[in-house]
Amino acid sequence: MAFVKVAQRGEIKENGGKELNINGTRVALFYANGKYYAIEALCRHQDGSLAPGKIDGEVVECPLHSWHYNIRTGELLDYLEGVKLTTYKVDVRGNDIYIDV
User: Checking phi first, is residue 14 left (phi over 0); if not, alpha (psi -120 to 50) or beta?
Assistant: First the structure.
């Protein structure tokens, strides 16, 4: 694993997200509560991107069918037990944002 520069501060608005393709891996980067979070980008329901989803606290709602995931832990919060998306460590260095993929 290695940290890869993926964005800069200010690119993502508060309670917003952006989908990234890092070496073939689709990752959703979110900015909420003054922190950056990175999780696997695709909802397990029908592979919709979570990046444009509505953020409420640490929860993102999939824009396709309203499945809810915790953006800190990757856990699905409704419908199925034990479903968890991969989370990635985020490091902010100055104005640069890095993700460990």
Answer: beta
